[in-house]
Amino acid sequence: MNTLSEERLVEAIDGALPQTQCTQCGYAGCLAYSKAIVYEGADINRCPPGGDAVVAKLANLVAGSVVKPVDPGCGETKPLHKACIIEEHCIGCTKCIQVCPVDAILGANKWMHTVISDFCTGCELCVLACPVDCIEMKLSPEPWSESDASIARERFHARNARLEDDKILEQKRLEALSESHSSDSKASIMDALNKARERRARK
């Protein structure tokens, strides 16, 4: 019988998932899916990348769960494929960079992009985002490993932390800009009032 606390169970489930962060389960990454299983009763068979092996692991962790086939509505279980950008067709739009959950794509606006294959999880989110269909998924010579999963988890959370920091910095920038405009506006109003008083005083 599983006696793990809910928090520990979330960690255990997250540890069993492949960390591809593909969102095929319907949640925003493996940790979000883990929490949905524990707190919302989400089914354990919604991870195509993990396949039957992950379903079996989750069945051992989640009380009352039974092994069942992967939900076909979530996608197909298949060998690991990694993204490859056809660089001569890349227009440098950065859309793939914006959606990559583990920052595995290098590039800049209007500059050619390239995939860091060692970090690619095969999530295919970049394929869906590319407006010119210049990203192919190629069969990986090596299967996904626990080490790959660990690295992907770290990169996923590091990216999310960076995005959150960027959001906070942007909010502070906008607040400072608003305060600056407000101060400038008040100064302009006071200047106009002072000039009006001076004109009245001269009459």
From TrEMBL:
Pfam family, one: FeS
Superkingdom of the organism of origin: Bacteria
Record domain 4Fe-4S ferredoxin-type: where: 81-110, 111-140
PANTHER family in alphabetical order: ION-TRANSLOCATING OXIDOREDUCTASE COMPLEX SUBUNIT B, OXIDOREDUCTASE
Keywords (A to Z) from UniProt: 4Fe-4S, Cell inner membrane, Cell membrane, Electron transport, Iron, Iron-sulfur, Membrane, Metal-binding, Repeat, Translocase, Transport
Classification via InterPro entries: 4Fe-4S_dom, 4Fe4S_Fe-S-bd, 4Fe4S_Fe_S_CS, Elect_transpt_cplx_RnfB/RsxB, RnfB_subfamily
Species of origin: Taylorella asinigenitalis (strain MCE3)
One term of GO molecular function: electron transfer activity
Positions of the UniProt region annotated as Disordered: 176-203
Keyword Membrane: yes
Gene3D superfamilies documented for this protein: 3.30.70.20, Electron transport complex subunit B, putative Fe-S cluster
Keyword 4Fe-4S: yes
Ranges where the 4Fe-4S domain occurs: 5-64
Protein name: Electron transport complex protein RnfB
